Amino acid sequence: QLRIISMQKGGDIGAVFTRLATAVNELKEKLGFQCTSNLGFLSSCPTNLGTGMRASVHIKIPLASAHPDFKQICDDNNIQARGIHGEHSDTSGGVFDISNKRRLGLSEVECVQDMYNGVKKLIDFEKALAAGFPSFKPDTKSALRRFLTVDVFNQLKDVKTERGVTLKDIINSGIQNEDSGIGVYLGDEESYTAFGTLVNPMIEEYHKGYKVTDTQPSDFDPAHLEAPNPDPDDQFVVSTRIRVARNLSGHSLTPALGKEERLEVEKKVVGVLESLEGELKGTYYPLTGMDDATAQQLVDDHFLFKKGDRFLDAAGINKEWPEGRGIFHNEAKTFLTWVNEEDQLRIISMQKGGDIGAVFTRLATAVNE
After folding, report:
1. Which DSSP string corresponds to 102-162?
2. What SS3 class is residue 100?
3. Distance separating alpha carbons of residues 326 and 36, to the nearest angstrom
4. d(CA 350, CA 356)
């Protein structure tokens, strides 16, 4: 019998609601409305039971409305999007009528609050998309896709570390490669705190049971390892390999390494590697200028690492390939170090058979030195 409406240009939702409340209260007092304690104000259509209220705004959101997550955002925030000429009408120029979806079981204030919260989310989403928030395919399952929310993006989009690493830098690989498992590559030590809002939940999800506020233990004492050879007759274990990744203090991580800094890292590392004695003594083979015979031998030994895949390439790790990169190994080919691959150092101990203790002892000696 009555559709009581308050409206005006712009987004002053409070003023529109105040006017409506004044009118409804006065009409109710003078007319009396059908109302029950369980169904609220009655209507010919059951969808209007409860408050009978539909609060809406017309907003221009061409980017958000074209995004694959648009419907999910509306559903998550209990709002309904439809054309500006009513239900089942088409939109025009990216302008949508956004209203609360719930009416029964909520107060009038709560209905308007639903609409307001949903509209605010959509506006924030539109702004984020205009500022570069990535658009993922609906079936993307990477950690980046799950943890990079609009709120996180807005918080971090203007952050830059002292070495110049930005949010765009660390997420580029995950954007270019939506089949990534994680989707981020950090550019320096500061990135782990500067972009912690995004990265910390990824760390805790991947390293289950560990909190970033915990303390990481370290024990490289072979005497504490209880690992006698599980296959002393060499019937089952073909070979054993243990490696660690390390990066030098005072330098960028590999995605942010420039040419000069990479060469500086190589020089420092090679100087130390070539000073090793005893079982660890060996030779460094730079990738730049490597002759075919040496390269083939390293391939045959399964030592030669290749240019990084598309994930590393998008992270910036392949810059100026192969300059500043190389391989070190000892004479027995049981100790190997990759220089400036995915990390500045991949320190590797390996040998035939299952003597895990010997492999670990060699690695511990090298890492500690």
Report:
1. --TTS-HHHHHHHHHHHHHHHHHHHHHHHTT-----TT---HHHHH--HHHHHHHTT-B-T
2. strand
3. 80
4. 9
Task: Return the structure tokens found at 319.
Answer: 């810059």
CA 21, 23, 102, 56 torsion-angle sign: negative
Which residue from 104, 233, 35, 250 is spatially nearest to 163, judged by alpha carbons? 250
Q: Which residues of 215-244 are buried (b: 16+ CB within 10 A; e: fewer)?
A: eeeeeeebeeeeeeeeeeeeeebeebeeee
Name residue 337's amino acid. Answer: T
Question: What's this model's pTM, rounded to 2 decimal places?
Answer: 0.81
For residue range 299-352, what is the model confidence (pLDDT) as tens digits? 888 888 888 899 999 999 999 999 999 999 999 999 999 999 999 999 999 999
The string over 245-266, giving b where at least 16 C-beta atoms fall within 10 Å of a residue's C-beta and e elsewhere, is eebeeebbbbbbbeeeebbebb
Is residue 47 a contact partner of residue 103, using CB atoms and an 8 Å limit? Answer: yes
